[in-house]
Amino acid sequence: MNNLLPFLPGQLDQVLESIPFFMPEIYLSVLFILVLVTDILFGKNSAWLCRILACAGLVLVIFKDLEQFQLLLSGTHFLFFTQMLLLHQTSLMFKLIIDVLSVILLLYFEWDDDLKSHTKGLSDLYSITIAAIFGLHLMAMSVNLLSIYLSVEMVSIASYLLVAYSSENGWSSEAGLKYVLFGAASSAIMLYGISLLYGFGGTLNLFTGNLLPGLLAVNPIAVSFALVFVFVGIGFKLSYIPMHFWVPDIYQGAPTPVTAFLSSVPKIAAFGLLVNFLTPFIYFPKWTSFDFRLFLSVIGIITMIAGNFAATLQSNIKRMLAYSSIGHTGFALMAIVALCNPGNTSGKSALTFYLAAYALANIGALMLASYFANTTKAGDVNSYKGLGFKYPVAGVSFVIILISLTGLPVTAGFNGKLLVFSAVYSVYQQNHDIWLLLLMITGAITTVVSLFYYIKIPLNLFLRKPEKVIDYPSSAPYLLIASVLISLLLIYFGIFPDLLAKYF
Amino acid sequence: MNILSLLIFTPLLFGLLILLLPSAWRASFKYITLLATLVQLGISIWMYLHFKTGAGYAGINNESQFQFVQKLPWINLNLGSMGKMQIDYFVGIDGISVTLVLMTSVIIVIAALASWEIKSNLKGFFSLFLLLNTALIGVFCALDFFLFYIFYELMLLPLYFLIGMWGGARREYAAIKFFLYTLFGSVFMLLVMVGLYLSVKDPATGDHTFNIIQMMNPANYDANSVFAVLGHKTILGMPARTVGFVVLFIAFAIKVPVVPLHTWLPDAHVEAPTPISIILAGILLKIGGYGIIRICLGIFPEVASSGAFWLGLLGVISIIYGALNALAQRDLKRMIAYSSISHMGFVLLGIASQTAEGISGAVMQMVSHGFLATMLFFLAGVVYNRVHDRDIYNFRGLGTLMPKYTTFIMIAFFASLGLPGFSAFIGEAFTLVGAFESPSTNGVLPYWMAVCGSIGILLSAAYFLWTLQRMFFGSLSLKGGDVWKTALADLNIRETITLLPLALLTLVLGLMPSFVFDKINDSVLALVEFTKTVIR
What we know:
heterodimer; A: 504 residues; mainly alpha; B: 536 residues; three-stranded mixed sheet; 5 strands
């Protein structure tokens, strides 16, 4: 202990200097404690209070995020907390998107009847979610293998709790158990990979230190093994193939708002993490041990094909959206491949736009799935027959949201696709890499395939007649209002993408 | 407010109006739609009359020669390493588009009149109809590839629902087949579009641009870009520009449709309700032809020239195959659908010849087929609405029962089979003249193709005359007996009013083809001249 004393003031100074870069996260942790205490003090009936607190607090965090743009005026990036975390334009953008989407998600929790009728109440859910968002912030900023692992684990543990929240439901508890088992296994593999990297390079720090030169000195095959192990862990969060196997069961089994949560924000954070992880390798000129572009291209192509084709076979809405979200991961990997070229910035902005458009549309689609489940108990595409005539507003916004997910104009999803294609193409023009071309062709083909299953929903809503006419009790309109707003937003960003894209 | 933008977005505004009106007013929706289409027709006629002709207004590859232009900066994204993305709201018309815009406006009025038969869910039908209307006009006016693509794709969804919700028994199948076919073509078009955009730079601003006219100028291509004219880059081992041309051609060939990409058409046309069949046959197919002329020929002229033989061959196959299939049909609507394939083959043959006559003939044939197909589908709809049957074998001797109807059928049939004095004759004759002239002038097509085209006319005479004889001549004999006899009333006032202008138009265009040729001539000559200079 005494030996450490001389270093303490310096360390403390560093911590104190880092605090301005950590303001949103500090607010989040205070918010977490507040929500938790409120829950404990006011007991089971405090859900509404927790909800207001969580949402208001998150809005405050968004303001804190915005304030951080001021910090970035004085420099492009800041490493802080002994180079554990990195704040720069992209990570800040990811954090902002995550927070905005999380506000929508927090509101959405209570609108789902299945989740709301839970005997335990929803108060715990809010504190867990806030903790998860804290973890997501860390994921988007981690640049040290240790902080990467810790943030991924933090999000994972919160996600396990969310999935298994309604544990008296057989599906949900099965999904929760599966999720924990797979998650634990994959994070163990990732940890093994990290320990190998640490052993090879002698440091955990990605950006500074000697990790990459150290890795170059080691046998490439051994390094590749270690990196693949790390990708197993990241892939578990991104759900690309072959790390996708948990997705369908868990998305179907989890309460719908939780599915919406899992399919959107952790994915965005994981892409942020992947960008951070790849950046030092991309800009290290002598790096030859492992071809990230080839690796990610192959995974991207397989993921797009398998995700989209498997989705055509599904009839449960949530399961279908689960497979489609796998397909979307594959498409977003295309932007990552484009980004794996030094000096390419368009890949990053394309990725951000694509993910924002996808996440918004996916949340909207699941909200409408909840809406129909609330009113008619329908969870299967075939039970949607003729419902479009009964609920025209919900039906039309469902169509718009699905069009955006397919990537047809005039929606934000189309512009996302266009930006990704442009980013990949501009790289292809420079290096004529055949894999980029294959990626684009696969992306185009799977777009057609995705239409084939997305259109099943409008088909049943509008083209088919119901077998018997039932009068359903009307339900609360919040979900409807929210999904209409989302669909309008998707069209708005479809016509004027630059209003959103100029920030990325 | 630019008149062209007004033309494009008027239907959209009326569509929104219908969407906002309470459903209790549903009886007024068809009148609102008709009003919207009439306003649109008025604007188009005004534009047609004020359209200036002369070599100084040819358009094609000269931005300043387009008329009624509106160009507004729309999307300007800074993409870092890729420079800026420049997308304009850029609309304007030249000789080739003006005739097609007017044709579209006329046909849409007819389709709106044919929508009287729609009885269910009127709000949905008419708002989708008007949305479709905006997209259709927009495609013919857009000069920015991005804008063109948006309008091109915007058609799909309304059409899917219009076919799928108000169509016949196999409507689900027909609607999804149509959607998937077209989307398959257009997603690959998207890839080529992105490639072109990254290859072309606007000389004025130095940004990458989607401007179609800038894409036509070989000097605007970056030397290292994929589609550079002199770059000779390859994609998957094939010359890049050939790949680009083929992909775009397939996308448009699906729309035309060119055999063997035609199989969606008989299903979609037959299952669609009458107004939508009219729009499909009358307008949608022309978008394919227009796209080939404006985009495939305009941007990749040298590939079009070297591949002209194959284009011509596909055209001839479509003519013959479509006609032979039409001969074999029992369903009246299916017969007309296959005759459309056959007639659109002439368009492709004319374009392939790359002569002034051939391309003029192709445009003329598109206009003429627009009116004739509209008339034919409307007429098929008349019988179907009355007895819900279209089988040619179930009718005989309708001539005595429905004399007015038979008159219009005869006009439509004789006009379609290419009787001199009607518009189709002019269109087909000019495409064949172009095809005959090609071997001796530019040598891209062999003689036998023109001969095969003529055989197609002969076959079309066979199936039209046979149908006429089977259904309308002889003594009255109906499958449904007396029930049908009372149901099959002759044309009412609305139907006559709808058909009369169409019959007159095809006659007028047959006698005075200058109404079309005067407007398109400068543009066609400029196009032929332009393709020659680029090839050199």
